[in-house]
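ok trying again, last paste got cut off:
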Amino acid sequence: MTKFFSRQFLLSDTAVLVYLSFATLLIHFLTNGQYGYFRDEFYYMACAEHLDWGYVDQPPFAAFMVSLTRRLLGDSLFALRFLPAVCGALVVLLTGLMVRQLGGGRFAQVLAATAVIVAPAYLGIHNFFSMNCFDHLFWALAVLILIRILKDGDRRLWLLFGLVAGIGLMNKYSMGFMGFGLVVGLALTQARKHFASKWLWLGGVLAFIIFLPHILWEIHYGFPTREFIQNAILRKNLPISPPAFVLQSLMEVHPFTLPIWLAGLYFYFVSKDGKPYRALGWIYLAVLGLFLGTRAKPYYFLPVYFMLFAAGGLVIAAVIQRRGWTWLKPAYMVFLVLGGLATAPLALPILPVETYLKYQDFIGVKPPKEERGVPDRLPQTYADMFGWENMVATVAKVYNSLSPEEKAKCVIGASNYGEAGAIDFFGKKYGLPHAISSHNNYWIWGPGDKPGEIGIIVGGSRKDYATIYEQVEVVATINSEYARSSETNLPVYLCRRPKMTLQQIWPQLKEFI
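nice, full thing came through this time. structure:
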C-alpha cells in the first residue's frame, strides 16, 4: 500500500492520470446536485422497482444499477448521480491508458484525457443518471482491450472483450454498433487474421450468452423494442442531415478538440505506427456511416471519439517533440482548458437559470434540438429538470379534494413516463397512489386492479379521454416556468362515469415511443 504514496508513484504518469480522473469526479460531485431530477431518472427509478430482463426502451442493466444505488446510497440527487460521476472519471483514466498502450508519453496521455474532460457532451452525460454514462465506460473498456489485442496479439483477450461487450449490450444496444464497426474494421485490415482465432468466436459466444436473457424477454413480449425504435424514428426523433450530424458532433466534443481527433484519424489511416490499429479507424467510419444512414441522434456517436483522442494525443505530442515546439504544450493545454470553461455552463448546471439564459444568448449558442416539438428556452436536458414536484403537488391538491370514498376508487394517469415516474417518486409524501400510463414500460406494467371509476389524468386532450369517460373536466393547470414547453400549461383532468373499465381498454392505449 505504501508504494501508492511513494514519491516515485505520486510523480508517475499513472498518478497524473489518477489526478485528472479525481478532478473529473470532483467536478461532478460539486455540480450534479443543482437544478433537479431529470425526466428519465424518474423512469429509471420506476424500472428499478420492477426489475426484469428488459424494458420497452432499454435492456436491464441501468435499472439494476439504480436499484443497487438506492439500496446502498438512497435516492438523493447526489446518490443517484454518484455512479455516472464515477463513470466519467473512469473514462478519463481509460482514455489516458489507451494512449499509453499506443506508445504515447505523459503529455500525450494528459492531452487526450483533458480533451475528454472539456468536451461538453461528456460533462453533461456523466452529470446525471442514464444508460449513456455506462455506455461510455463499456466502449472505453472495450477499445482499451482491443488495442491490447491488436498490439500484443494475445487472442485470449477476446474473451474479456466478449465479457465487456455482453454486459455493455445489457446496458444499451449501441454496444452492438461497436460490434458492427469491429467486423468491418477487421475485415478491411490485416487484423482479419483474428477471424481464424477460436478466442474471437468464444468471445462472441460469451457476449451472446450474457445478452440471451434480454433476447428471450424481447421474444416473450413480441419484440417491443423494435416497435419503440420504429416509432421514435418516425414520430419523435428530429431528422438531421449528414452535415448537421457531423457539425453537432463536433460541437458536442468541443471545437477546440478538432485537431486532436483529426490527428487520431491520421494516425489510424496514414501513419506507419498506426497501421496495426487501422481497424479502429474503420470502426469510426463504419459507425458514422451506420448512424448517418439510420438518422441516429448525434450523441449516440460520442463514445467513438475516445480512441480518436487517444491516437490524436500521441500524434500531436510526437509532432511537438520532433519540431521542438515545446511552447505549444502549455499553450494548447491552456487553450483547451479555457475553451472547456467557456462551454462548461452549457453542460453542467453551475449557473442560476436566468444567468444561464443570459450566458446562452451572450455566446450565441442555441439549445440543440433532437426531438420534434416546440423549442424550449433551456436545453432539453436542463428543461427536463424543472417542474416535476410542482406538477405532483398540483395533482395531490386535486386528489385531496376528493372524498375518502372517491380516493379509494381513484386512479392517477399520466401521458408519459416522466410524469408517471415523478408522481411515483414525489407522490409518496402526498399519499398518492402509483401512477399508471400507456407510455413504454408503464403500459406493460398495466392499469392495476382498479377499474378506473374516477381518474385524475395529467396531460393529453379532452378528446382522448372522452372515449373512455362520460364526464371529463379540467380542474387544474400546471405551470412551470423553466420546464419543457410540453410540460407547462399542462391540464389536469378529473374524469368520472367510465364507458368501460381500464382493463378492457388498456390493450388499445399502448404507446411505445
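cool. The chain has a mean pLDDT of 95. DSSP finds 26 helices and five strands in the chain.
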